Task: inverse folding
């Protein structure tokens, strides 16, 4: 009977060790994070690449917890078109709105807006004056200098 109990306990311990991480375990594993996602590419047909990037951001939040993240998305060059495409793409609108509701900041390069003659008020989805940064690449360097981890999805 002693061997049977020992085997049962060993089996339970093995199952517990392979169980998915709980939110508390994730917090212990990942801690607080400062992260900047860099988007400067075209989204492709039906904005699949942009939707994939937004999914990466959401997966990051799911793993670490919104309360443990200071997460920013910097858009410049072709990456600004994620907000242009969202004007007509309801899935993209939903993904962006969902992330903004979780305190993800979207920052837009003023150089790109000027160079491409984009009016953020009329051409981009949910873009506001406070979302504009002087330079996308300078913003990336600035944030990395402040300890943000750089990710390019």
Result:
């Amino acid at each position: 009977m002693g061997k049977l109990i020992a085997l049962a306990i060993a089996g339970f311990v093995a199952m517990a060790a392979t169980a998915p991480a709980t939110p508390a375990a994730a917090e212990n594993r990942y801690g607080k994070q400062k992260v900047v996602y860099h988007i400067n590419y075209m989204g492709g047909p039906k904005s699949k690449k942009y939707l994939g990037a937004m999914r990466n951001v959401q997966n990051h939040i799911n793993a670490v917890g919104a309360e443990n993240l200071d997460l920013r998305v910097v858009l410049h060059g072709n990456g600004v078109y994620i907000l242009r495409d969202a004007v007509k793409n309801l899935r993209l609108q939903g993904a962006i709105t969902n992330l903004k509701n979780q305190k993800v900041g979207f920052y837009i390069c003023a150089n790109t807006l000027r160079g491409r003659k984009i009016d953020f008020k009329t051409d981009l989805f949910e873009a506001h004056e406070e979302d504009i940064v002087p330079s996308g690449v300078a913003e990336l360097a600035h944030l990395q200098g402040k300890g943000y981890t750089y990710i390019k999805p």
In short: The beta strands are 33-39, 69-75, 105-109, 132-133, 149-151. The chain has eight helices and five strands.
